[in-house]
Amino acid sequence: MTIQQLLKTAPVTTLLLISFIGLFLLQVLTGVDANNPSTEDLLKWGANALPFTMTDDPWRLLSSAFLHIGLMHLLFNGFAMYFFGQVAEPMFGSAKFLALFLLAAIGGNVLNNHVTWQGILDGTGQPGISAGASGGIMGIGAALLIAALFKISVNGLVLNLKSLIFIMGINLVYGFAVPGIDNAGHIGGAVTGLVIALAFAIAYRQRAKATQVSPPFDASLHIHPTYQQYKGYNNYHNNSHNSHHYVDSNKAKNPAILWQLLPWLVMLVMSVGFAYWWQDLHQQLLQVLAAIE
Q1: What is the pLDDT of residue 135?
Q2: Would you call 277 exposed, middle or buried from its count of C-beta atoms within 10 A (0-12, 13-18, 19+)?
Q3: Distance CA 116, CA 49 (A)
Q4: What is the pLDDT of residue 124?
Q5: Are 22 and 68 in contact (CB under 8 A)?
Q6: I need a surface site. Which of 83, 216, 228, 280 has the fewest CB within 10 A?
Q7: Does residue 114 have an active-site annotation?
Q8: All residues at 6 or more sequence positions from 259 whose CB lies less than 8 Å from its CB, including other chains
Q9: Alpha-carbon distance 230 to 142, whole Å?
Q10: What is the pLDDT of residue 164?
Q11: pLDDT digits (tens, 9 = 90+) for 238-293
Q12: Active-site option among 63, 64, 130, 134
């Protein structure tokens, strides 16, 4: 897929990739080591670090998702974003796709800080530093798993569940096998993506049930390696007039709007939950610091 095709099919994915690469180039041009950036440089450019993120810099929960620790880290996450984004964005819609990525990144970073803080309290851990789009990307991958499980289709094609499980499995195994990988961030992002995708899937099924036809998607995709032909789709589509009846549009309108809002409501609740979680960790940290002083 060319850049022009990607921009047309998945504009948010394209802009995210440009932001990752642009930020990395800007770092390098200002003297940051392209392969082994220092802790000071990473903190300066917005990395996630508990003493900063959980006190005065909550914005690091988001900024760290656009920052990468070296060229290989950027290339790995860039490829994963390209691979998942060109499928997920047309499926969920650009606005929801962006919200999914950002919330999964925040969820991963909050869980990372929670695990780090518990390790400090238990005497088994110490503050670290993390960065990268991995949490958001794992959230997108987990959302695609749910889409495959619920057989959500785009132009008669559904995702290949086995291929997605294999790809997600490699990422998780790699994270646990290689020291220094932010496993909590990966898991937090994936869980966030699963919860949000369940709202998408339930809404999809309910809208289909309300209208007695599968709701169409706005964008079309080229055949992708993660797709497999949904054999039952054509028969269902051709025979739908014989085996189903259409609900009157006025009656179907209200439930369709209600279910369309469900993913946004779930994401709003999760946003409030993350804010409360951050506030709780923030207060715990301040209490400990006050006791030390």
Answers
A1: 93
A2: middle
A3: 10
A4: 82
A5: no
A6: 216
A7: no
A8: 202, 203, 204, 206, 207, 210
A9: 20
A10: 66
A11: 444 444 444 454 555 556 677 888 999 999 999 999 999 999 999 999 998 888 86
A12: 134
> Tokens 């709007």 — which residue?
257
Q: Give 90: exposed, middle or buried? Use CB within 10 Å, 0-12, 13-18, 19+.
A: buried
* Known active-site residue 186: yes
CB neighbours of residue 252 within 10 Å: 17
Predicted pLDDT of residue 292: 81
Q: What is the mean pLDDT of the chain?
A: 81
Query: What pLDDT sits at residue 215?
Result: 47
Residue 233 pLDDT: 40
- Report how far residue 14's alpha carbon sits from residue 10's, in angstroms, rounded to the nearest whole number: 6
Angle between helices 71-92 and 134-149 (to 10 degrees): 40
Site of tokens 């220094």:
180
Dist CA 213 CA 232 (whole Å): 14
Amino acid sitting at position 75: L
- Of 158, 122, 176, 165, nearest to 142 by C-alpha is 165
Which parts of the chain sit beneath pLDDT 70? 1, 153-182, 210-256, 293
| Cα 101 from Cα 136, distance rounded (Å) | 5
Other C-beta atoms lying within 10 Å of the C-beta of residue 76 = 18
Instruction: Note the helical H segments in 178-247.
Output: 183-211, 231-243
CB atoms within 10 A of CB 110: 26
From the list 138, 219, 126, the residue with the least C-alpha distance to 172 is: 138
Instruction: Exactly one of 68, 73, 114, 186 is catalytic; name it.
Output: 186
